[in-house]
Amino acid sequence: MSVHSTDRRPSQPVRHLSEPPVVRWGLTAVALAFLALFLLLPLVTVFLEAFGHGVRAYLAAVAEPEALAALRLTLLAAAIAVPANLVFGVCAGWAITKFEFPGRNVLTTLIDLPFAVSPVIAGMVFVLLFGRQGFLGPWAAEHGVRIVFAVPGIVLATIFVSFPFVAREIIPVMEAAGTQEEEAARVLGAGGFQTFFRVTLPNIKWGLLYGGILSNARAMGEFGAVSVVSGKIRGLTNTLPLHVEILYNEYAFQAAFAVASLLTFLALVTLVVKTVVERRLGVASEETRPEAAVAGTG
Amino acid sequence: MSTAAASPSRRSLLPGFRLTMGFTLLYLCLIVIIPLMTLPVRSATMTWEALWGTVSDPRVVASYRLTIGASLVAASVNAVFGLIAAWVLVRYSFPGRRLVDSLVDLPFALPTAVAGITLTAIYAPNGWIGRFLEPYGIQVAFTRVGITLALIFIGLPFVVRTLQPVIEDLDVEVEEAATSLGATRFGVLTKVILPYLYPAWLTGFALAFARAIGEYGSVVFIAGNMPMRTEITPLLIITKLEQFDYAGATAIALVMLLMSFFLLLAINVLQGWTTRRLAN
């Protein structure tokens, strides 16, 4: 938090040095037309298609048992993946920003790795690992553990794709906070955990929330990776995005868009929270903005 | 502040290095490194001929061409319009600017499958926009144009979001100096401002391109998925997996992984360049 947080996005554009009004209006029109075509139109389309056959048809599609089962699985996967990634993000942030060690840059690059990998490959590696022809497949079969084409595989793939978000957001925030406050707490006799919960956590809470929100959006919305490991058994291994695909491929367009509207609503909530938290983060988010852009491979 | 004194004192004062570092490495290995290692290990069991035969198969090569070509076009479109959008959002004021600014992140937040079916609904021959194009014989959905549109959507925020902080950071005095020395506004834009934006602009382009290369969810619905014509590489991997041709899928995935690594490396270099620009 700082005094700069209010003027993160300058509300007074630089006026004395600008383009002629015609150029300004022209560029604004081009930008808005482009954004309307690619952002606003899809957003409106989802809801219009979802409610195209009335509210009753919408509710029927959303309350259908298979849709509810898919919703439960999506929530379950996110409920495991997001806390796991939060714990990882805090640990990685602590180790990377509070200590100096060789290979620090290598470690941060490795944490970013899941962003660079195609979601299809992210799902596929778990099939190669735990599938019937996989390295650990025979072992899993012997012990009666089903991982691929079952819920554990979906959870693993979800963790993989939503993995870097928290760490990426938390590292710059922790870096900016420095180590002096923690050192002071230690000198004054605080224990390790006391230092963390009383000093570090209040400093990073907004960054943590920010990373958690991004991680959650990705976890709930993931399609490619989950689609490879799921096996798409209706009512059992179907997440909401996979359910959308199944309905769509069965030409149940209205139902597909009804379920899709739930995910779109989630996306809108994510955007609102993100905007609010970004304002709270103030200057810290200013520094992470390019990273935030990288992080958002949704 | 002397680093020589700071470094050991950090070590002695703050606890938890072993615990957090240990957990970080363990988690990273279990979730990311070990799973990803299956790709090179698995392809090492293939003969060179089999590996090369798979990745140079005409159908596979056609999919690389399509994926890379469409991604390049999409990233270029985003580079042009993203630059304009970033400039407008930072420099001009108009009603609803903050709202529009928040909306730019939509492609990050919207699940790709939702984006896929929505774009198809818009551009299909009976769709919202598709029906106006159809009489002129223009088909968008189920063609390469449709694939490119989906890739423009998912790559849209990258260029805008990498350029915005750099534009905000522009030193007005430099513009004033150039203007007072007699430069026209157009001259200032193209000779002073644009060169300053190059690193961030290229970074945004590379990020959008890298994202598009691996994209699956938003593309499959609008692509048509015809072998040799509208079949992207990630879909080909899925097809091979569904036929239990794990070796074939692994070989193609390895090529994609190498491409991603190369891009990640390039992006790291570009980001270093951008950060140095910002620091100066």
Note down, in words, how this protein is organized.
- The complex is a heterodimer of chains A (298) and B (280).
- Chain A contains 14 helices and no strands.
- Chain A is an all-alpha fold and 298 residues long.
- Chain A is globular.
- With 280 residues, chain B is mainly α.
- Chain B folds into two domains: 33 residues, no CATH class; 221 residues, MetI-like fold.
- Chain B is 80% helix and 0% strand.
- In chain B, helix 7 runs parallel beside helix 12, helix 9 crosses helix 11 and helix 13 runs antiparallel to helix 14.
Question: Would you kindly provide a brief summary of this structure?
Answer:
The complex is a heterodimer of chains A (298) and B (280). Chain A is an all-alpha fold.
Give the secondary structure arrangement, pairings included:
The complex is a heterodimer of chains A (298) and B (280).
Chain A: H1 21-50, H2 54-63, H3 65-98, H4 104-116, H5 119-130, H6 137-142, H7 151-161, H8 164-177, H9 180-187, H10 192-221, H11 224-230, H12 240-249, H13 253-281, H14 283-295
Chain B: H1 3-13, H2 17-44, H3 48-55, H4 58-91, H5 97-103, H6 106-109, H7 112-123, H8 130-133, H9 144-168, H10 172-180, H11 185-214, H12 217-223, H13 233-242, H14 246-279
Helix pairs in contact in B: 2-14, 3-14, 4-9, 4-11, 7-9, 7-12, 9-11, 9-12, 10-11, 11-14, 13-14
Query: How many DSSP E strands of chain A?
Result: 0
Just name the CATH architecture of the largest domain in chain B.
Orthogonal Bundle
Give the class-level CATH name of the largest domain in chain B.
Mainly Alpha
**Pair with the biggest interface:** A-B, 113 and 111 residues
Full CATH superfamily name of the largest domain in chain B? MetI-like
Q: Helical amount among residues of chain A, as a percent range?
A: over 70%
Which structural class matches the secondary elements of chain B? mainly alpha
Give the integer mean of the pLDDT values of chain B.
89
Low-confidence stretches of chain B: 1-10
| SSE pattern of chain A, N- to C-terminal | HHHHHHHHHHHHHH
Distance separating the two termini of chain A: 27 Å
CATH topology of the largest domain in chain B: MetI-like fold
What is the strand tally of chain B?
A: 0
